[in-house]
Write a structure and sequence with these properties.
Mean pLDDT: 87
Distance between the termini: 28 Å
Strand content: 15-25%
Order of helices and strands: HHEHEHEHEEEHEHEHEEHHHEH
Radius of gyration: 19 Å
Strand order of the largest sheet: 2-1-3-10-4-11
Structural class: alpha/beta
Amino acid sequence: MSTRAKLSAAALALAASTLLAGCASSAPGNAQTPEAAAGFAKDSSTLVFGVVPDSVDTETNYRPLMDYLEIKTGKTVEYHESTDYAALIEASVAGKIDVASFSGFTYITATNNGAKLTPVSSIVTKEGQEPGYYSQAIVPVDSEISAVADFKGKKVCFVDPSSTSGYLFPSYNLGKEGIDVKTDITTVFAGKHDVSVTKTAEGKECEVGFAEDSEVEKNDKVKVVGETMVPGAPIVVSQNLPADLSTEVAGLLKELSIDEIAAAGVKGADSEGFKAVFFETKPVDDAYYNTIRDICKSTNASQCQ
């Protein structure tokens, strides 16, 4: 998938207003079938599983989880990867997603714009781990830059305007250092976490950058100069689904282990690739994301509106 074009800081407000207009115009399309009118994103035999387009491996990473839902619910689980974060938000507002793996910031933005979603759990990758991951500030491995305070005046790679670890928390941390993202840096949106890491490593289009820790650790051509723990990304279930099905899906996803997925006969559940991104899910609720709401207020981020 192609890298996102550069967006100027001034374009962020325009993007937010365009998103709202797009959501409003798309909503009627959700009632094209009786099943959709009854609350299904597509039809009564299908669950549409939406994901944030985080990396090139996104579909592979989520396939065992989707296969597990198919086995347990008897429904076809259809993978839906949006072109960008805004498109996934728009789809959720329009009722075109049944289940999704969001970032925390995307969840807040979507629900602020009318999406009816319930967060049920967050994926952890290691035994004993709690939900959450790191937003990391990175520079090329041979760079003399040693702290976020040195990012002023630089070309900075972010992930997406609606990314939690790839934009919201970085913007907040830059602000704490007295760096205004609108005037003190050149903003580059990479579109995916792995692309942000790659561009930063190259040191051309981006001199410094931000991305989530799981993608940073894959690249030995960057080094970490700062990090902040962010709330774990939620798995959400649409409130538009019939109540019994919504309850069933939430129950399946709330506290799920990799052993349960493997025991259900899911191929690939025991692969090293899946084990690297999934150990179990732990319950979260709406209040868990109040930290993100607080940062939205302090940064006055237009995407929060």
